[in-house]
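INFO batch 0412 | record 1 of 1 | parsing
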Amino acid sequence: MSVPLPDTFHRRTVQAGDVRINTLTAGDGPPVLLLHGYPQNHLIWHHIAPALAQNHTVVLTDLRGYGDSDKPTGGHGHETYSKRAMARDQLLVMRELGHEHFAIAGHDRGGRVAHRLALDHPEAVRGLAVLDIVPTHHTFRHADMDFGLGYYHWYFLAAGDGIPEHLIGSDPEFWVRTRLDTRHRGATPFHPAAVDDYVRCFTDPATIHATCEDYRAAATIDLEHDETDHASGNRITAPVLALWGSEGFVGRTYDVVSAWRKYAENVGGVAVHSGHYVPEEAPKETLDALVTFFGGL
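INFO prediction complete | emitting tokens
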């Protein structure tokens, strides 16, 4: 079974500072960068990207540490996988492709990278769509028992001493498929070839380590950066669209638009009928919302 992206998408490796980022491009028009979440890669957009490419230049990437992008070893302080470092990767990719100004849609971890990119480089970001998240700072500052049980993986993956690496590495396929299946509530099933590719990537111990470092950074250096911005009043100035799954933890737990309005100046949002994996579970609703949002920038 073939991987579900048409051959109109051209793959290349882009040198972004000290890392190489797996990148796919297609289409013509205003540039849009699409960023994936955990435990996935650029293939989460396989329903969305071809349709967007009819009127946009679409750029798909694998985040640092994910997919077929470089996976540097995390170090003391977790700076290597800070959202600031990961956001800079994406900015450099877009500049290398000739795009100084662009819109972004980010799901899950990709939404957190996109959030940081919009804060650190507001001149580059025309608009930001964040899918099934509220800001990291907000989640940690409002964490309770429901969050701890519903998002236990945040704490598990951030644990030290190689514990999550060892446990996930003992059966990575079980981990990936369980993460996907237990959070799926939408009408559209996962594409088997996409899931197979997510599993392929997680059979690499470097991916397991890198993605744990992503979560360790979120609980340490990212939170420090977020605290600084929040205290200084640094907010996203670009228009923000929040999309979330009505049947997932985010939709059940948060007033999503109100949460984002504490961190951004111009926020709209809507729920779609899905669980966490919005682009794959509810592709038509997601595409319609993104087309309207990007078309109005």
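INFO post-check: The beta strands are 10-16, 19-26, 31-35, 57-61, 102-107, 125-131, 240-245, 267-272.
INFO record closed
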